[in-house]
């Protein structure tokens, strides 16, 4: 889901060349040029790659021909790399609905990102928030805080333990700060490290609502660090397996 040019599916196929029965259905709402599935158009080029241009919001997964016509023969694994914001929740809701209808959704693997783009109306963890007596206004605040986890990292200088936190600019030493304080008129309440911790906790709160949603709807779900932060700051994947597996 959110297939883009299809590179993730293309690379996954390269890892599964011995699995002749694997087919791929790519869901993407936008037109894409230079698509990787163009390498799989012909029979001798590997498994079937089907591309569907539609919004996940409008997707009925159990109605896809490759799923509907093979319910007893093939299991379905939903994968996505960095499915932004509420698109992740749309995908999770789609998976739960499909599991109720065709019972062959075996796993979900989604690399999470862009929590700050999540909307309350799309969020699947509303019941989790209600149990904690948290409101949509609280949700909006938590969503905003998630950006603290990554925004400062993108502008950092190498860390020597003496970083400054003035106006979002990371300096290696306070001695490097201009004597003209008018240049840096805003002083932060939290250090960069504190902001990152708060942002990370905000992300995990939103993710835990997703975990509970899946656990209450036929899946066993958890979060997994899948790569070092040196590779990507968005290094958490949501992984769920069907309880009927």
Distinct helical segment count: 6
Please identify, by name, the CATH architecture of the domain at 7-125 and 209-242: 3-Layer(aba) Sandwich
Question: H/E order of the elements?
Answer: HEEHEHEHHHEE
Q: Write out the strand line-up for the largest beta sheet, numbering strands in chain order.
A: 3-4-6-5
What does the largest sheet look like?
4 strands, mixed
Q: Identify the overall geometry.
A: globular
User: CATH-wise, what's the superfamily of the domain at 7-125 and 209-242?
Assistant: Vaccinia Virus protein VP39
Structure description:
- The chain is of the alpha/beta class and 245 residues long.
- Helix content is 29%, strand content 14%.
- It has a domain at 7-125 and 209-242: 3-Layer(aba) Sandwich (Rossmann fold), CATH 3.40.50.
- The chain is built from six helices and six strands; from the N terminus they run αββαβαβαααββ.
- The strands form two sheets. The protein has a four-stranded mixed β-sheet with strand order 3-4-6-5, covered by helices on one side. A two-stranded parallel ribbon has the order 1-2.
- Helix 3 links the parallel strand 3 (76-81) and strand 4 (105-111).
């Amino acid at each position: 889901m959110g297939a883009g040019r299809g590179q993730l599916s293309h690379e996954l196929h390269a890892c599964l060349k011995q699995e002749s029965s694997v087919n791929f259905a790519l869901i993407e709402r936008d037109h894409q040029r230079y698509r990787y599935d163009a390498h799989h158009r012909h029979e001798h080029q590997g498994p079937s790659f089907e591309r569907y241009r539609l919004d996940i919001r409008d997707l009925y997964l159990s109605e896809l021909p490759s799923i509907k016509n093979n319910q007893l023969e093939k299991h379905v694994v939903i994968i996505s790399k960095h499915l932004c914001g509420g698109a992740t929740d749309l995908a999770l809701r789609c998976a739960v609905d499909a599991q109720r209808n065709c019972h062959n959704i075996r796993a979900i693997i989604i690399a999470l990102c862009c929590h700050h783009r999540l909307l309350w109306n799309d969020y699947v963890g509303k019941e989790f928030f209600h149990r904690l007596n948290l409101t949509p206004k609280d949700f909006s605040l938590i969503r905003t805080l998630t950006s603290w986890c990554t925004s400062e990292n993108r502008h950092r200088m190498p860390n020597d333990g003496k970083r400054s936190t003035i106006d979002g600019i990371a300096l290696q030493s306070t001695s490097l700060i201009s004597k003209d304080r008018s240049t840096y008129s805003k002083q932060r309440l939290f250090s960069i490290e504190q902001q990152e911790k708060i942002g990370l906790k905000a992300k995990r709160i939103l993710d835990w609502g997703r975990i509970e949603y899946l656990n209450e709807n036929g899946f066993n779900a958890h979060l997994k660090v899948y790569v070092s932060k040196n590779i990507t700051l968005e290094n958490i994947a949501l992984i769920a397996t069907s309880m009927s597996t």
